[in-house]
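Before relying on records like the one below, remember that each one covers exactly one chain. Contacts with other chains, cofactors or solvent are not represented anywhere in the record.
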Amino acid sequence: MKTHFGNDYFERNLASLVLQDAAKRFHFSPEPAGLWGMSMGGAFAVSAAAEQPQQWKAMVLVCTFDTLAGVESDRLRRWFGPFAPVMERAVDFAITMRGGTSPATVRSIDKARGIWIPTLVAHGDKDVLISIARGRRLYEALPGSDKKWIEVPGATHGTILVTPLALYSEMSAWFLASMNPASRKGYAGTSPGEKGEGK
C-alpha cells in the first residue's frame, strides 16, 4: 500500500472525509472536531489542518517530525557515518519508487507555519526514530500562541504512551479544553514531572 504522508489531495482530505462519513453513519454532529496524530499520523494531521483549517478546532501531535528527509538523514548518519550522503540517494530512490513520494517533499514544518489552531506537541527525550529536536522544530514553526510543548523524560518512540507520566490524562484534558474554550478555566495544566510551555 502506498502512502504519501498526507501530501496528495486525497490524503490531505482523508481525515475530513472519515469524519463526515462517520457523522452520517452514526448520526452525530461533525462539529466541533479536532485532530490527533502520532508519528506518521502526525504528518497526516498537520496536512489536514493546513488543508481545511476551518474544519478543526484543536490538534495533538505525538512524536512526529518536521521533515521526512531529516528523519531519513538522521538515521543514515547513525548507521553509515560519513557514507550517509551516498546511501541517502539510494534510499531516496527506493522510497520514491516504493511509496510514490520523495522524502524531500514531505515537509510538515512548512505546513505548520500556516496552522493557527491550538496545538499540543508531545515528544520523548529518548526517541531515536524521530529525534526530539525534530519534534521541537515542528512545534516552534507553529505561529500561534495557543500551543503547548510536552517533553516526556525517558520516553522512546515506542514507549511514550506507557511511561509513568500521566500523558494520556494531560493530552485529553488539554484537547477537550481546547475544543471547548468555555471550559478552559477548568484546565489543570501540566502534570507533575512534565515540561510544558505555552497555553
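The mean pLDDT is 89.
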